[in-house]
Amino acid sequence: MISIVIPVLNEERIIHRNISVFTELATVCDLIFVDGGSVDKGGELPLVRGRILGCEKGRARQMNAGAREARNDILLFLHADNTVSSEVVENIEKEIRQNGAVGGCLTQQIDKKGVIFRIIESQGNNRARRTKIFYGDQGIFVRKDVFERLGGFPEVPIFEDVLFTRKLRHEGKTVVLPDKIMVSARRWEKRGVVRTTFMFNTLLIMFKMGYPLEKTKKLYEDLR
Fold first, then answer.
1. Where are the beta strands (DSSP E) in 25-162?
2. Which residues make Cβ contacts (< 8 Å) with residue 69, sequence separation at least 6?
């Protein structure tokens, strides 16, 4: 089986919206929510659908805390606004146990109609296949022993997913499965597609240029 780790912080609305998905996943997975100190009820809703842990806020810190408590030897990390089916979870397990992958991610699909969203999806999925560097909202999965050997996610303010998967790709076979992971369009809807895309590209440029991650994180929080 697989352990799914979901960091949450003030996500009551999105968790409630996806409660039927979490209910299904809880029947086939060890489902772990790691709350970073929510002031809404986002840290309470999952109680009947999985385990919930408390942790100092910070996405990397929360995911590492969940991984330490995971009961199974395969980890899947989701954002609160990501959804996958139980069949996808089964295919992840097959890819690792039968096909020898050490980790990978899923094929992203944004839950909004429109050509622009299909373009965004395509660019992100093609980038992941080409570089073997995966973003958190693409559903990163990994063998737990490999995750531990790499020291988990570096507990930095932002881009912990990029830093981790940079190392992961050197540990063995990593893949982008064709199975879909649904992603909320809320961040693009909130600020607009053009502005959001520009801002994310700016963040990536800052990261690649070695700009301090603490300052980059502040710009990311403004975007959210």
1. 29-35, 51-54, 74-77, 82-83, 103-110, 140-143
2. 32, 51, 53
Instruction: Identify residue 197 by its one-letter amino acid code.
Output: T
Coil, helix or strand at residue 70: coil
Helix (H) or strand (E) holding 152: none
Element at 167 (helix H, strand E): helix 160-168
Q: What is the pLDDT of residues 127-147, one digit of tens each?
A: 999 999 999 999 999 999 999
Highest CATH level, class, for 2-181? alpha beta
* 185 in Cβ contact with 117 (< 8 Å): yes
CB 79 within 8 A of CB 56: no
Phi, psi of 191 (to 5 degrees): -110, -10
- Pairing state between β 2-8 and 74-77: parallel
pLDDT in tens, 104-114: 999 999 999 99
Q: If you search the block for the tokens 């693409």, which residue do you land on?
A: 138
Residue with tokens 């709350």: 35
From the number of C-beta atoms within 10 Å of its C-beta (0-12, 13-18, 19+), residue 117 rates as: middle
Whether the CB-CB separation of 102 and 143 falls below 8 Å is answered with: yes
Q: What are the residue ranges in the chain where pLDDT is below 70?
A: 42-48, 221-224
Where are the domains positioned within the chain? Answer: 2-181, 185-224
SS3 63: helix
Residue type at 110 in one-letter notation: I
